[in-house]
Amino acid sequence: MDRTTYTLFGFVTASLIFGPTGSAQSVTRKAPTAADWASLAKLPDFTGVWEVGLGGGGGGRAAAATPAPGGRGDAAKGGRAGAPAGGGRGRGGGPSLTPAYTAKAQARGTNPADDAQAANCLPPGLPAIMNQPYPMEFLLTPGKVTIVIEAYTQVRHIYTDGRPLPADPDPLFYGTSVGHWEDDTLVVETVGLAQVPRGLTFPYSDKLKVVERFRLTGPDTMTVETTLIDPEAFTAPYSMGARTLARHRTWTIAEYICEENNRNFVDDKGSAGVKLSNPLSSAK
Question: Does the pLDDT of residue 66 top 60, yes or no?
Fold first, then answer.
């Protein structure tokens, strides 16, 4: 066979094995109309560059009740939740895990990864990327909210065009996100999250759903409440609390090239790591 025949044969074979080359989860979006653009003026003004500031998140706690899709649940409203059930860690140390995932957590603790994944320029995935100490820019367009994150030059696509969550999502670092507006709050649900080594510090299943609620609390402040729901791995929904973002109207997103970082090193055992001290500072 000549080269063209080999190429055609390979393409047909790959198509039979892997299916259509286009994404099975693609959705056709209509061209926005003038009315669609005008409707953006009625939404809260999220546009601009934001930075993570002070907030009560980080420790997290088990939510008291399963929130409805897009709902808050008691803990997500800021109230204190009851003591978690099950054998997991619960309040202050991660979600309450089912017995099977408690075992996974214990196994992970006794078999840590050889390399520091930050040294491999591996992004931390969702929801960790939203807590990075780097700016992020919100862009609102008809049917979509785009978040451009300076860290690792990452982009989140949140579809607000009324589409449902995919029933069988592809596993991705940031999953597939669908949002809707509840008065002045953008409620985002994300599914299809891949198992990211640098992501959450506790195990989770492919059933994990991340629910985020974005709301302006001032001209240049925003709160983000995050709740994790995983019926296979958690005994109850887990609230990560609220983070506060501050808007910087004069800022722009800078270029971030992880591979040019000079903080990486390889130890005498061949494991990659990251030096957290300032690489430009003189040796003490």
Answer: no
